[in-house]
Amino acid sequence: MYTVKDLHTNTPLVTRTQGTGNDLVFLHGWGMNSGAFTSFIPYLTNSFRVTTIDLPGFGENAQHVPSPYNAESLAQMIAPYIPPESIVVGWSLGGLVAQRLALLSGNKGLALKGLVTIASTPRFIAGPCWPGIAGDLLAMFESQLESNYNRTLERFLAIQAMGSDTARQDIKAIRGHISEYPEPDQHALKQGLRILSTEDLRQDIGRITVPTLRLYGRLDSLVPTSGIDRICELHPQADTVVLPHAAHAPFISHPQQSADILFSFASSVYQQKAS
């Protein structure tokens, strides 16, 4: 554990909360903000209290840029804002941060009920015997960032939706909602890509003790299903669900199905802990 410094401000992070019930906390993916969950949250708020937190450097927390900027520092900065006994739900890059939070659970006053990763993995970058994102693709995004963030985001969204029968609608839905939030910090964008390129939790996820659900889309080009068995071997305690017709954003393309899966898992976790 090391000290995390906020480069720009010491003001509190911005969080948004809707609904009533047991707590779910949502963390978004790279280049995004909590607007990505806008159309999905109403499926949950009759049963849960849903909190969204923009990752430091993104959205309403764009002015908060930790140093160093990595998954662990993001987790440490977010941890104080997570309600006690929450299930943390992390999508894509947010899933890496959520896994870090699960590893921190039990320390520094953080006590999670559970973990859900959506289209996430302990390691995004491809490597020997490990399916993932090609390194040159992330390098291309990083070089394009310097000239045009919006165009880079459009290309990233297109890759995320690739394979989905509702790809155009998915992209339009996400783009429309995230545009309602402030643009991200440039340093956070670049370092976020660096996290996707370098973070490797494969040797750590076996130490996650909270109940875990890993939700995937079979058509996801960023988190290939060919790597799911390897993740299961590293984290056999986790439940795994693969949506056959979803890509990288199953909560956008298949919101009701995703909500039902999340509801079933969260309900069982809270009932188990209460008994």
TrEMBL record:
Name the reaction it catalyses: 6-carboxyhexanoyl-[ACP] methyl ester + H2O = 6-carboxyhexanoyl-[ACP] + methanol + H(+)
What metabolic or biological pathway is this protein involved in?
Answer: Cofactor biosynthesis; biotin biosynthesis
- Answer yes or no on keyword Repressor: no
Which Pfam families would you find in this protein's record? Abhydrolase_1
UniProt cross-references to SUPFAM superfamilies, sorted A to Z = alpha/beta-Hydrolases
Q: Where is the AB hydrolase-1 domain?
A: 24-255
The main location class comes to cytoplasm
* InterPro entries, sorted: AB_hydrolase_1, AB_hydrolase_fold, AB_hydrolase_sf, BioH
Q: Where is the active site?
A: S92, D220, H248
**Which top EC class is given?**
hydrolase
> Is the keyword NAD assigned to this protein?
no
**Signal peptide residues on this chain, from the entry's feature table:** none
Query: Which molecular-function annotations from GO does this UniProt entry contain?
Result: pimelyl-[acyl-carrier protein] methyl ester esterase activity
Q: Please cite one Gene Ontology biological process associated with this protein.
A: biotin biosynthetic process
Which locations, inside or outside the cell, does it occupy? Answer: Cytoplasm
Q: Which GO terms describe its cellular component?
A: cytoplasm; membrane
What keywords are annotated for this sequence in UniProt?
Biotin biosynthesis, Cytoplasm, Hydrolase, Serine esterase
Sequence similarity: Belongs to the AB hydrolase superfamily. Carboxylesterase BioH family.
Recorded hits in HAMAP family, A to Z, give:
Carboxylester
Q: Which proteins does it associate with, and in what oligomeric form?
A: Monomer.
Protein name per the record: Pimeloyl-[acyl-carrier protein] methyl ester esterase
Q: Which organism is it from?
A: Alteromonas stellipolaris
